Amino acid sequence: MTQQISSLSDYKDAYKRSIEDPELFWATQAETFHWHKPWDKVLTWNFETPEIKWFEGGKLNITYNCLDRHIADRGDDTAIIWEPNDPFGGVKSYTYNELLESVCKVANALKANGIKKGDRVVFYMPMVPELAIGVLACARIGAVHSVVFAGFSAQALADRINDAEAKMVICSDFNSRGSKSIPVKQVVDDALAKGCPSIEHVLMDRNTGGEVPWSESIDLHWDEQVDPQDGFCAPEIMDSEDMLFILYTSGSTGKPKGVVHTCGGYMVYTCYSFKNVFQYQPGDIYWCTADIGWITGHSYIVYGPLLAGATTVMFEGVPTYPDAGRFWQVCEKLGVNQFYTAPTAIRALMARGDEWPAKYDLSALKVIGSVGEPINEEAWHWYDKHIGKNQVPIIDTWWQTETGGIMLTPLPGITDAKPTYCSYPMPGIQPVLVNADGELIEENDAEGLLCIKFPWPAIIRTTYGDHERCRQTYFSTFKGMYFTGDGARRDSDGRIRVIGRVDDVINVSGHRMGTAEVENAIDEHPNVIESAVVGYPHDIKGQGIYAYVITDGKAGENFEKEVLAVVTKEIGPIAKPDKIQIVSGLPKTRSGKIMRRILRKVASGETENLGDISTLLNPEIVDEVMKGAK
Ligand code: WT7
Q1: Which of 83, 80, 79, 101 is nearest to 91 (CA)?
Q2: Confidence of residue 87 (pLDDT cuts 50, 70, 90)
């Protein structure tokens, strides 16, 4: 079994060993898994090209380790508890035995429809058990899954399908979220209508029931395909560095990129981090409220917990349906021991009042976690007081789609926790702060750019179909280091606090958004000449989206609504600007670059200290922008 740190001296010792001899440290962790053939070499790395290989030559299947490996000891233990959107809808649960059988059936159905090792399969589904089962079924046969968050638009879905040249889309008929019903299958059809030549089939799970558009030549019913299949499917034997999945994420330029994770290293790191960060003990009920459409759901709803043989809760709904007590009602009902959510949810629930958590018994909680964006001091204290009752350790976990697993976090009950600080690196993680010239900042009580100077097993391997983009984005800014895109501060005791992105990426309710992506969407409106998008502090969302727009002067009175509709169509509702300001020009440097620094300040309500504007091509515009600020 994966090693578990249980005291401060254990942590210090593990950390020391992981730095002095990382290969020995990770090989020791990797040995606790089932390998069909042991690896030849623990680590090969080069951060220039980049080329990173962990456990090269090793043969494994991650689902064998998530499922088959546990059958003998805990086949009848609960693997997944599914809590539906409807609070009276009835919990569904799967034991490890049942989950293995379900995964095998779907794996056989995929095979029967021509899916084989290396093929890409896109998921566009709500949080139903079939999503976790389908993802594991892909991994079972070596197909590469790419889960697209079901809130993205048809256009965004089509872009992702085409970038990955996926052969199949797996979807549901509808998605029930809160009181809404979203026509998922219709969105898939709309995406395919835009042209997705690689798609051979759409496999649809009947979730809510109801009429859906149907094409006999393309569409397949989940039940018809899956039910007749055999309940066992031999795991495809994968190389450690074979691709496990692609997950698209936004960057500062261009279209979202497909972050690639591979089998061996991702397995070792997600399991190790899960067991240690949450201090999971056998029998505990663990709940991460994320959506499997994001990396948090991949690593800490599906893979990490199942690799550790845990009981993981999957929640279909939203925090405020039917009321703002839903999270706490579910915690009480299921006896949740570890709870992991996002600051935006904490802030939204905090705004609804202290009486909601007060109604429920939260005494089973042993660890409460936060992820996705910086947690502000007020939200941290509310979480501590009203959810943890000042007794339960809070873990503020920092990581990224690209890091595969949690990188910086307090260990609950083991290391100290300071509000708003992700604090300490996990064993094997070597964070550094550098200045703009890439020089190491050695001293404490300092701010800088957060980089990681040594590989860990779950580090990004490439961006799908465009390795150069991976090099450029993460490994070219500072030589020999992985650059996170985040700014951070280190306090006088060495704890780290991640402040936020230093690139043109904004974090809206824990969702990563490229400003360029939103601008491109806005520019699709026929009356828009140019736009510039920046983030600004938002009470609930963390950051809101502020758009400055230059029009051709012919925009109608519904212009703002139309812009929101265009963005919803191009990306999805999560990218809708919170504020739109029409301007006659944008502050630009003499080389024609937009001075975002000024736009960010105005959007944040700052009108003094705009800094030096004398180098602008058009300094006169600043006054207009300021006067019209929303
Ligand atoms: C970005 C990564 C990996 C979890 C989901 C988000 C920000 C994430 C924290 C935190 C401060 C955080 C960073 C990071 N972020 N967690 N605990 N404190 N900032 O994954 O979409 O890849 O976004 O989220 O800015 O770079 P993601």
Answers
A1: 83
A2: very high
**Chain CA centroid to CA 221, Å:** 29
Mean pLDDT within 201-212: 95
Question: Cα separations (Å) of 238 from 39, 55, 139, 262?
Answer: 12, 12, 9, 10
Predicted confidence (pLDDT) at residue 47 exceeds the cutoff of 90: yes
The minimum-distance atom of ligand 1 relative to the CA of 375 is 18
Dihedral angle sign, alpha carbons of residues 119, 69, 401, 261: negative
Index of the ligand 1 atom closest to the CA of residue 512: 21
- Structure tokens that stand for 284 in this block: 């505990």
Least confident of 49-53, 102-106, 209-213, 222-226: 209-213
379 contacts 406 by C-beta, under 8 angstroms? no
**pLDDT of residue 163 exceeding 90:** yes
The tokens describing 29, both together, are 């962790």
Mean pLDDT of the chain: 96
Structure tokens at 553: 């002067």
CA of 485 to the centre of ligand 1 (A): 10
Helices 154-164 and 559-570, axial angle in degrees (round to 10): 30
Q: What digits encode the pLDDT tens for the residues 305-323?
A: 999 999 999 999 999 999 9
Tokens matching residue 94 = 């799967």
Q: Which tokens belong to 266?
A: 């991702």
CA of 460 to the centre of ligand 1 (A): 15
Q: CA distances (Å), 503 to each of 381, 567, 615, in order?
A: 29, 21, 21
Helices and strands counted in the chain (H then E): 21, 30
* pTM, to two decimals: 0.97
Label residues 232-262 b or e (16+ Cβ within 10 Å = b). ebebbebbbbbbbbbbbbbbbbebbbbbbbb
The 3-state secondary structure of 134-180 reads HHHHHHHHCCEEEECCCCCCHHHHHHHHHHHCCCEEEEECCEEECCE
Pocket of ligand 1 (CB under 6 A): 249, 294-296, 371-374, 396-401, 422, 484-486, 498, 500-501, 507, 512
Distance CA 83, CA 334 (A): 9
User: In 3D, which of 317, 340, 309, 262 has the Cα closest to residue 86?
Assistant: 317
Query: pLDDT tens digits for 120-161?
Result: 999 999 999 999 999 999 999 999 999 999 999 999 999 999
Q: What is the mean pLDDT of residues 206-227?
A: 96
